[in-house]
Amino acid sequence: MKFLDRVDLKVSSGDGGKGIVAWRREKYVPKGGPSGGDGGDGGSVFVEADENLYTLMDLSHNKHVFADDGKPGGRREQTGASGEDVVIRVPPGTVVKDKHTDQVVGEVVEPGERIVV
């Protein structure tokens, strides 16, 4: 079994959904006012320690990790759905660094521990 202890990944959270501009229109409600909904939140990317992993080999084939975008808002103040979060599973003891600044973003030590990247 090969052992890999360093991987470069491009990670991006999802964009928030667009809100909608809408006006309340009902027969007996003159000048009903605004009724557009907010867009949903974009998904987040997490790194989580998994006690069953011992190497970063599974991540060597996937260089880009993107969370889903939020969905747009709707009429009648309907908020858009949030984007799906993405969880990257790594061995305990993994240190996450920013490639450009070499600054430590975080470290997952205990199994189940999770950080937002």
Short description:
The protein has strands at 10-12, 45-49, 64-66, 86-90, 94-97, 104-108, 114-116. The protein has 117 residues and is mainly β.
Plain-language structure description:
With 117 residues, the protein is mainly beta. The protein has a single domain, classed as GTP1/OBG domain (Spo0b-associated Gtp-binding Protein, Chain: A). The chain contains no helices and seven strands. The strands form three sheets. It has a three-stranded mixed β-sheet with strand order 4-2-7, with no helix packed on it. A two-stranded parallel sheet has the order 1-3. The protein has a two-stranded antiparallel sheet with strand order 5-6. The radius of gyration is 21 Å and the shape is elongated.
Helix content: under 10%
Largest sheet: 3 strands, mixed
By CATH, the architecture is named Distorted Sandwich
The number of domains: 1
- Radius of gyration equals 21 Å
Query: Helix and strand string, N-terminal first?
Result: EEEEEEE
Task: Identify the CATH homologous superfamily.
Answer: GTP1/OBG domain
Number of contiguous helices: 0
Give the overall silhouette: elongated
Mean pLDDT: 83
Write out key terms for the chains shown.
mainly beta, three-stranded mixed sheet, two-stranded parallel sheet, 117 residues
Compile the SSE list and pairings.
Layout: E1 10-12, E2 45-49, E3 64-66, E4 86-90, E5 94-97, E6 104-108, E7 114-116
